[in-house]
Write a structure and sequence with these properties.
This protein has three helices and six strands. By secondary structure, the chain is an alpha+beta fold. It is globular and about 35 Å long.
Length: 97
């Protein structure tokens, strides 16, 4: 499981472009450098969109839980899954302050 500190600052990687077609429930992330593309669900898109500006993991988690009105334990679990996938696929990066 992902083990990063709450004060870790995350941001979207350079070259990642997000696109959404909410009326048809389709969300995408494109890597303009490698050509990789990913289909996302609404919450995954929301997380990546929030990371267009660097943000501490703790603040991202709080916003996620508030936006989707879910229990903290469930929100933390879901967010960690999205963050782990995004880091593994070079969609986001850790930012040094």
């Amino acid at each position: 499981m992902l083990d990063i500190k709450p004060e870790t600052i995350l941001s979207i990687e350079n070259g990642i472009v997000l696109r959404s077609l909410p009326e048809s429930n389709q969300y995408y992330a494109f890597n303009t450098v490698t050509g990789d593309h990913f289909s996302l669900n609404h919450t995954g898109f929301w997380v990546l969109d929030k990371l267009n500006q660097p943000i501490e993991l703790f603040n991202l988690e709080s916003a996620y839980i508030e936006t989707f009105s879910i229990r903290r334990s469930l929100g933390t679990k879901h967010l960690k899954e999205v963050i782990a996938f995004s880091l593994e696929n070079a969609l986001i990066k850790e930012v040094n302050p």
